[in-house]
Amino acid sequence: MEGTLSKYVDSIPGLVGPAYDGFENHYEVSGDDWGIGWNVGVFYKLTEATTLGLAYRSEIEMELTGESKFANDFSYFDGAAIQNLGTIRPQGSKVPLTTPQSATLSIAHQATDALLLQAGATWTGWSAFEYFDVIATENTDGLVVHPTLGPVPSDGVVDVSDISELNGLGEAYIGHIVEKWEDVWAGAIGATYQLNSQVALRAGYAYDQSPVSTENRTARVPSSDRQWVTFGAQYTVSPELSFDLGAAYLFMNAMALNEVNKGLDDQPTSSLTSVAGEYEIDVFGIALQTNYAF
Question: How far is CA 199 from CA 88, 177, 248, in A?
């Protein structure tokens, strides 16, 4: 710690350490930005019954700007009692973010008058998402010091250049999460059967690789390879009005989590595991849609 902050915290444990176990704070970030990207698609009819489609979506680079704030006071245990260091005020921040590029190839084949077969594959360039960083864009007004820490300035505020002085990251980094996602493929097959002039039945299956590696899996996105099984139906009342009902079951491979805090050099800041556990995730969803053509 440097400057006027040091005389209030030099005598207590560092703001990252065993004395803070059970008093871990968290920050909330809000921001927005505009980005520019482009899409292109090609549709080709191989035969009267078979069509091909190719679509590409570009990366979009953004820098979300807004405000970061801690949810709670900074507290710790000095061996005898809980001590309250104080509250740090909100400060302006930015989050650099690049959305991935993707390419999709699809094929549809009208096998019979009633049966339509479909398949597709999508490549997504998730390697563009390397870090989730929250970076200060302005200095805070200071740390509002708790009176029990002794003499404080008349306004009760100790100067802090930015929150990175408190979390140990430095270089104005409020938060730094190593993601290093990987490029992935997803594939799907499906069919639509026209039962009669009013009712169409649908079913499908999809396999979706996870961009999250075991090494960099976090509790925020506990992801592994996913499989989807879907069913649906459409009921046509008239050329203008129809209803769609769909259901999907998603299940993921069981996954282990051993997340540790890492510094700006991507190396663990502690030999202790921050979060450890196992995840098993299954999801069931159902949707009803009404379509009306004017």
Answer: 61, 49, 19
Which of 2-6, 84-88, 108-112, 270-274 is the most confident on average?
108-112
Q: How far apart are CA 84 and CA 77, in angstroms?
A: 9
Q: Exposed, middle or buried, 73 (CB in 10 Å: 0-12/13-18/19+)?
A: middle
What is the Cα–Cα distance from 180 to 216, expressed in whole angstroms? 7
Mean pLDDT of 233-237: 96
Its CATH class, for the domain covering 3-292, is mainly beta
For the chain, the domains span 3-292
* CA–CA gap between residue 287 and residue 10 (Å, rounded): 57
pLDDT at residue number 10: 41
Q: Are 96 and 63 in contact (CB under 8 A)?
A: yes
Q: What is the token pair recorded at 7?
A: 């005389």
Q: How many CB atoms lie within 10 A of CB 231?
A: 14
Q: Each residue of 70-116: pLDDT tens digit?
A: 777 766 666 777 666 666 777 888 999 999 999 999 999 999 999 99
What does the alpha-carbon distance between residue 216 and residue 181 come to, in Å, rounded to a whole number?
A: 8
> DSSP labels for 66-104?
EEEEESS-EEEE-SSSEEEEEEEPPEEEEEEEEEPPEEE
pLDDT of the residue at 163: 65
